[in-house]
Design goal:
Elements (H helix, E strand, L loop, with lengths): L2 E5 L5 H18 L7 E3 L8 H9 L1 E8 L7 H10 L7 E6 L8 H12 L3 H11 L5 E2 L6 H13 L5 H34 L6 H30 L1
Parallel strand pairs: 1-2, 1-3, 3-4, 4-5
Helix pairs in contact: 1-6, 2-3, 3-5, 4-5, 7-8
Length: 232
């Protein structure tokens, strides 16, 4: 059975406590629809790259608990990279603790290249992809009522059945496929533009060809979404 995976900064008291409080508040509800239960990575002393790949592969949803130092932690960065790799379409929900600060431009331009060299671009793309998902704030110093509300916000982001998980993966694959098509169209348009003169009647045919290509992609996307809607 797949598990709800909760990642937090290893060896950090704030991160471990925050993740523990969060899990305590959601586990009874999660247990109703996640047959594999909750897997807290903080419970494991060491995790190598193979272990992390296996964790992501078997995950129902991944919750990434972010605290100060999370984005300098090899384990959490490797998990994020696996979650947003080309072969993974798992649902990922970032949760921020009070000490976490979103990375500045220098993080992408200086820190990642210095630490990951040739893999820095891939790692930067993964971190940026993580923050395209709206983060759930979990204010561990707040009242119990506020923490309950924030835990409920997280629960609302977790698929409630494997059917929903499959739907999420289907949409992710559709978006990935259409992004590739659009990149291909962009390349073709650039090629056409380079072959066309600056002036002349040929511009009308180029515009028509671009319109036809866009209609092909939009039609394909509509078909994918209609198929997904009928599946759901």
């Amino acid at each position: 059975h797949r598990s709800l995976v909760v990642s937090s900064l290893p060896g950090c008291d704030e991160a471990t406590a925050g993740a523990g409080i969060l899990v305590n508040k959601i586990q009874s509800t999660v247990g109703r629809f996640v047959k594999g239960g909750i897997c807290m990575l903080a419970d494991f002393k060491t995790l190598n790259d193979v272990d992390i790949c296996e964790v992501v592969f078997r995950a129902y949803t991944v919750v990434v608990v972010l605290s100060q130092g999370s984005l300098e932690c090899p384990q959490q960065l490797q998990l994020i990279a696996e979650c947003f790799g080309s072969d993974s379409h798992v649902e990922v929900v970032p949760v921020t603790l009070p000490s976490f600060k979103f990375p500045a431009k220098e993080y992408y331009d200086e820190y990642l290249p210095s630490e990951f060299q040739d893999d820095s671009a891939m790692m930067a793309d993964s971190v940026r992809a993580l923050f395209k998902n709206i983060a759930v704030q979990f204010a561990t110093h707040a009242s119990n009522k506020v923490l309950d509300a924030q835990a409920m916000e997280l629960l609302a982001r977790i698929p409630t059945s494997m059917k929903d998980v499959d739907r999420t993966m289907s949409i992710a694959r559709t978006e990935s496929s259409n992004s590739a098509r659009l990149r291909s169209l962009s390349s073709k348009r650039s090629s056409r533009a380079s072959r066309e003169p600056s002036f002349g009647r040929a511009s009308n045919s180029v515009t028509k060809a671009n319109t036809d290509d866009a209609e092909d992609v939009n039609g394909s996307l509509s078909h994918d979404l209609e198929a997904d809607a009928s599946y759901n």
